[in-house]
Every structure is written in C-alpha cells, then in structure tokens.
Amino acid sequence: MRWLVTGAGGMLGRDVVEELAGRGEDVVGLDRTALDITRSEELDRAFTEHRPDLVVNCAAYTAVDDAESDEERALLINGEGPRLVARACAVHGARLVHVSTDYVFAGDARSTPYPEDHPPAPRTAYGRTKLAGERAVLAELPGASAVVRTAWLYGVHGGNFVRTMIDLEARRDTLDVVDDQRGQPTWSADVAARVADLGTRLGRDEGAHGVFHATSSGEATWCELAREVFRLLDADPGRVHPTTSGAFPRPAPRPAYSVLGHDRWSEIGLRPLRDWRTALQEAMPHIRKAIAS
Predict the structure, then answer these.
(1) Is residue 249 situated within a structural domain?
(2) How far apart are the C-alpha atoms of 194 and 215, rounded to whole Å?
(3) How many domains does the chain have?
C-alpha cells in the first residue's frame, strides 16, 4: 500500500512516518507547509501526485487553551479539515485513519475508563472541534475509516510533559505538579506502531473501522508521572510535590479523569498498548538523547 501522512511535522506524525518507513512501507509525510488540509485544491493535488491507498491524518489544531478564544479557526482545522480529507479519500479510493483525543469526553468519570462507544460530551472548544472532525470522518467514509483517540502523549519530537520534567529536574530543587488529574501517559512511538497495525488491517478490509482508543495501559496523575521520570533519572521522586489544578488555572478546563478503555482492539486481534511505566522506561533514553543532540 501507499501511505500518506498529513501533519507529518508534529510529534505523532513524525513517529508515524518513521514507523512506516521502518516497516518498509511506501510512505510520504506532508507537514502543514506542504499540505493545508483545509484547502480542497491542495488535497486534490496531493492525492493526485502521491496516489495513496491509506491516509493517516495527524494534522490538527492542538493549542487547547488558545482554542477557547479561537474556536472558529480550531473548527476549520479540526472539523472541516478532516471532512475534506475524508472526501478526498472517497474520491480517490483511499482509506483513512484519523487521530482524535480524549477531550471529546467530559472527563468527569471517577474510576471507570471511558469505552469507545461512551457518549461524547466535550467541555472545551478543542474537544468540540475534535468531535466535529470525528463525526465528519465517520459520516463521509463509513466502513472505510478509523478514528484513533489518544491522550497524554509524550515522545522524542517536540515539546511535551516528559521532556519538560527532564529539563526541570536539572534546574530546580523541587517541583509542584498537579495530582488531581488522572490519565494514561502514552509514548507517541507506541501509538504510531498501533496506527500502522490498524491501517494495515483497514487497508485489507479486515473490519478495522470505527473508533479505537490508543493509550497506554494503567493510569497515573501528572504528579505520579513526574515522579516516575525523576526515578528513571536516578533523582529523588520526593522532590516532586503534589498540588491541585487550581494552582495552575487555564482558559480550558482539564479533564479530571481521562482514562480510556481499550476493548475494541480484541475485535481485530490486537492487545491494548503496554503499561505506561514499561513504555516510559524504554522511551527515556531516546528522549534524553534527543535533548542532548
């Protein structure tokens, strides 16, 4: 199959391109300067030139707080953009894996992970726009598209929480980190591998359509994640002090509980992603190397 990855300049997009290339797949990655998914003429040109069989849409407006005052633009990129990508796929006979987010849920569950079919109830502009994109993709390409929700991503490329903690460990004696938000720290490389697996099955028409959750197994708070980063740096985790979300007010409310269920993977013969601690231990040397280079 020929693969086209949009948003290929971002953390996950870069990992998807690297994962597919490492598998020997025929893949082209286009960042936002090479392809604006909100322009149908650019999409038609890209599809005509590269003739993809499978598209992975990683392009998105991801500035969660900015979206609160810029919802129109966020909706253009996160809602209308995916619709246009899906329509281009329909015209050119391609299938689509579209990346979405836990923010489509209210984030107010207490202890039960959100299953894939739980009713969405976004509380932020970002969540509303991403939900619009999900619905557009599934409506335009029923049976030929998959939505992959992920959350709490960290990785080698770009800024993210784990990289920030590594940096701050070297510069501060103590840190205050939020301990009342719970989710699933997830290595973007693991998501990229799962996207490749899912896309392969979708391309072969093996029932891999609909909604899937690609987050690590287990759960943690941001404080617990920060302490684990310190531990893997051979630093004292006790230097990380718990605090509340109220200590760091933001324009967009953060979900208190963003743990996602993974039941759908078994339907296509795949296990959920591994435990977050195992993934973080493997990821840390790669992230530290990237920081040092």
Answers:
(1) no
(2) 10
(3) 1
61 labelled catalytic: no
Other beta carbons within 10 angstroms of residue 184's beta carbon come to 26
Owning domain of residue 106 = 2-159+186-217+259-274
- E strands along the chain, which residues? 2-6, 26-30, 54-57, 95-101, 145-150, 153-154, 175-178, 182-183, 186-187, 210-213, 220-221, 240-243
d(CA 218, CA 196): 22
Q: Which of 61, 103, 126, 154 does the annotation list as catalytic?
A: 126
Angle between helical axes of 188-203 and 11-22 (0-180°, round to 10): 60
Question: In this structure, is residue 139 part of a structural domain?
Answer: yes
193 residue type, one letter: A
Q: Is the pTM higher than 0.90?
A: yes
pLDDT tens for each residue of 126-170? 999 999 999 999 999 999 999 999 999 999 999 999 999 999 999
Q: What residues does 240 pair with on adjacent strands?
A: 175
Residue 97, SS3?
Answer: strand
Instruction: Answer whether residue 125 is part of any domain.
Output: yes
CA atoms within 13 A on the CB side of 72: 0
Closest CA to 157 of 277, 59, 289, 41: 289
pLDDT digits (tens, 9 = 90+) for 45-72: 999 999 999 999 999 999 999 999 999 9
Return the amino acid letter for 283. A
The residues that bridge with 63 in the sheet, in sequence order, are none
| Domain assignment present for 231 | no
Rg value, the chain, Cα:
19
